[in-house]
Amino acid sequence: MSIGSSQQTTLSGDNRSVLQHLLRLPVLVAALGYMVDMYDLFLFSIVRVPSLKSLNLSDEAILHDGLLLLNLQMAGMLIGGIVWGIMGDKKGRLSVLFGSILIYSIANIGNGMVTSVTAYAILRFIAGFGLAGELGAGITLVSEILPGRMRGYGATLVATMGVLGALLAYLISHYFNWRMSYFIGGGLGLLLLFLRVKVFESGIFEKLKEKQVQRGNVLMLFRNKKRFLKYINGIIIGTPIWFVTGILVTFSPEFGRALGLDKPIDAGQAVMLTFSGQVAGNVVSGLLSQYLQSRKKAILYFILLSAIFAIIYLVVPFKSATFFYVVCTILGFSGGYWTLFITVAAELFGSNLRATVATTIPNFVRATVIPLTALFLLMKGSLGIIYSALVVAVIVYLLGIISLFYLEETFKKDMNYIETE
Questions:
Q1: What are the residue boundaries of the structural domains of the chain, listed by start?
Q2: Nearest Cα residue to 416 out of 328, 366, 346, 341
Q3: Which has fewest Cβ within 10 Å: 33, 170, 185, 347?
Q4: Helices within 293-368 (DSSP H only)
Q5: Residue 362 pairs with which residues in a beta bridge?
Q6: DSSP 8-state class, residue 197
Q7: For the chain, what is the largest distance between any 2 Cα atoms, rounded to a whole number of angstroms?
Q8: 195 CB-near residues (< 8 Å, 6+ apart)
Q9: Distance in Å from the first CA to the final CA of the chain
Q10: How much is the mean pLDDT over the chain?
Q11: Are 93 and 133 in contact (CB under 8 A)?
């Protein structure tokens, strides 16, 4: 069912350039918001060791409690993704943007004040809950504001700025201690909150509010078999990105020791290089999608590249730490299809479920770190760190490719429709 035809006519007759559209305030604010979002999300990966060491934890406890904190953060994102997604379709995209930035900014500041693992764990859960709303609401708003021919560019800008947030986290943590790094992240979020006062709501959502249709009804995703499978497949295709991020990169120092590298691996540098690669990957994957006129083909190429270098990371008997960092960079590049993955999530469903889906899918992907790390640790005792990660990798990449095969192509899909029972 089509809605908001007047809005669609306005967009199709809009002769502004791509750059002019991308410089519109809602697009810029969504992009900057995701930058702050990713700053916080990956700051923990960077400061995990120094922050827990300052709390007087042993090396073994740093691995165990660090994993606990990571999983609590992801659990918060899983729950938050559901709450914020429903709110985005019921109350509007902007309500989510305001609420999420406020919660994770305050939690970020609180992280800089912790003196115990318990307090750290609670605040990582709260931060995860707040972080869950940013990306889906931002991508939904941008996708509905921009003309169809420019959606890929808008999503690329948002995702690329997000990855730059991870790089900023590395730079800040390099020049400041871990507590000040958290304070700076919280301050940046609160500053961004003032910019959002002038951001306007999506025209498609304003039209949607006038219709007598169900909005943000999660049960609609489960009542229809085709819709449910589409939703599940949408989650699975993004899982390889977070296998790399949540296991291979986050625990890169432990993998470095297991591989017997000539130098210890710095987790912060591994994160920085991985996300430097992802910056380039986001741009290339977006442009490749435009060139191929296909989201699916571009995503397939990037998943295959990621699988190849995950195997190299785990199996090839190299000893050079420098080569290890090169592999991390390429793994980051191959994870650059995050842009397309979020775009596909927004394009797969109608406007009355779009925010729910675009917010929950990426957060469910992030939350897959919980079962993936659980499986990884379960096998680690018998198989060792390398082969347990390899088994998880095989499962993740095979499922990702199979799920991508069953998803519809969304490159030219009209966004101006709703889901019905």
A1: 16-200+216-406
A2: 346
A3: 170
A4: 295-315, 321-334, 338-347, 354-367
A5: none
A6: G
A7: 65
A8: 25, 29, 32
A9: 12
A10: 83
A11: no
Q: What is the CA radius of gyration of the chain?
A: 20
In the numeric block, the tokens 């730490």 are attached to 321
Distance CA 414, CA 7 (A): 13
In the CATH scheme, what is the code of domain 16-200+216-406? 1.20.1250.20
Query: CA-CA distance, 62 to 366, in Å (whole number)?
Result: 21
pLDDT tens digit sequence for 114-148: 999 999 999 999 999 998 887 777 777 777 777 76
Q: Name the DSSP class of 360.
A: H
Rounded CA-CA distance 154/356 in Å is 19
Residue 417 β-bridge partners: 2
The secondary structure of 227-260, three-state, reads: HHHHHHHHHHCCHHHHHHHHHHHCCHHHHHHHHC
Rounded-to-integer distance, Cα 267 and Cα 258, Å: 15
pLDDT value of residue 363: 77
Torsion-angle region of 384 (φ positive above 0: left; ψ -120 to 50: alpha; else: beta): left
Is 279 within 8 Å of 160 (Cβ atoms)?
Answer: yes
Residue pair 347/413 in contact by the 8 Å Cβ criterion = yes
Long-range contacts of 31-34 (CB under 8 A, 24+ apart): 31/138, 31/157, 31/158, 31/160, 31/161, 31/162, 32/161, 32/192, 32/195, 33/97, 33/101, 33/134, 33/138, 33/192, 33/196, 34/134, 34/135, 34/138, 34/158, 34/159, 34/161, 34/162, 34/165
Which residues in 371-395 are b (16+ Cβ under 10 Å) and which e?
Answer: ebbebbeebbeeeebeebbbebbee
CA separation for the pair 305, 309 (Å, rounded): 6
DSSP reduced 3-state for 71: helix
Q: What is the pLDDT of residues 181-205, one digit of tens each?
A: 999 999 998 888 876 665 555 555 5
- Reduce the DSSP state of residue 91 to 3 states and report it: coil
Partners of 2 in the β-ladder: 417
Contacts of 418 (CB under 8 A, 6+ apart): 1, 3, 208, 211, 213, 350, 351, 352
pLDDT digits (tens, 9 = 90+) for 267-297: 878 887 887 888 789 888 888 887 888 889 9
Query: What pLDDT score does 10 carry?
Result: 36
Concatenated DSSP letters of 106-146: HHHHHHTT--SHHHHHHHHHHHHHHHTTHHHHHHHHHHHHS
